[in-house]
Amino acid sequence: SIKAFIFDLDGVIVDTAIYHYQAWRRLANELGFDISEEFNEQLKGVSRMESLDIILAHGGLTLPDEKKAELAAQKNQWYLELVSRMTSEDILPGVANFFSQVRKANLLTALGSVSKNAPLILERIGMTEAFYAIIDGTKITKGKPDPEVFTKGAAELEVAPAECVVFEDAVAGVEAGKRGGMFVVGLGSPEVLTQADFVAPSLNALTVDEVLERFSK
Ligand code: G6P
Ligand code: MG
């Protein structure tokens, strides 16, 4: 039976996906090219340095490591400027209600994000206490689509992967959850999140009971 829910952060709990995109787009523009929203789908859930590599390849640029470190730090600085203004008002619609149902159902909760800024964002929105375990980009060696971030979460909660449901908005994140042996609810478009067990537009469109029913055998 299902014992735990593991949540991605960006695009699931808060809409920081848009801030990542804005900061990356600003960087690409400074380098002389542009990135579209459609292109951005492949960056979701992908680590900072891997995202930069994908963007540079898109712009046809090859740069030395020191320059890349500089660009990644610049992007992060712009990103932090955007997220520093966040408050609990920025929690996505339906999240607070969904979490109160999660508590009533006595489910365990973990955060599984490859973002190194995840703890900072949880503090800003006042949701640090909503998670029994927090796995972020500082605790993993491999980003999504590698399952490490989710399997570490399950291990900290002391539950088996098959007892976990992952909530993800990213193609790479859905793949990570499936590779980890977990049930995966995709949040977004079914045409994009094709590997998910099922897809809903957002947590606002779901109830905990509905999710549990889907995965109870
Ligand atoms: C999340 C986001 C990605 C981001 C990654 C690293 O997975 O979906 O867009 O690149 O975290 O975030 P960081 O805050 O460490 O740069
Ligand atoms: Mg995400």
From TrEMBL:
GO terms for biological process: carbohydrate metabolic process. Binds 2 magnesium ions per subunit. GO terms for molecular function: beta-phosphoglucomutase activity; magnesium ion binding. It comes from the Bacteria. The active site is at D8, D10. Mg(2+) binds at D8, D10, E168, D169. Its EC number is 5.4.2.6. Its cofactor is Mg(2+). It catalyses: beta-D-glucose 1-phosphate = beta-D-glucose 6-phosphate. It holds the Pfam family Hydrolase. Substrate binds at residues 8-10, 24, 43-48, 51, 75, 113-117, 144. The record marks S113, K144 as: Important for catalytic activity and assists the phosphoryl transfer reaction to Asp8 by balancing charge and orienting the reacting groups. Keywords: Carbohydrate metabolism, Isomerase, Magnesium, Metal-binding, Phosphoprotein. Coiled coil: none annotated. InterPro entries: B-phosphoglucomutase_hydrolase (IPR010976), Beta-PGM (IPR010972), Beta-PGM-like (IPR051600), HAD-like_sf (IPR036412), HAD-SF_hydro_IA (IPR006439), HAD_sf (IPR023214), PGP-like_dom2 (IPR023198). NCBIfam families: bPGM (TIGR01990), HAD-SF-IA-v3 (TIGR01509), PGMB-YQAB-SF (TIGR02009). Belongs to the HAD-like hydrolase superfamily. CbbY/CbbZ/Gph/YieH family. This is Beta-phosphoglucomutase. It comes from Spirosoma endbachense.
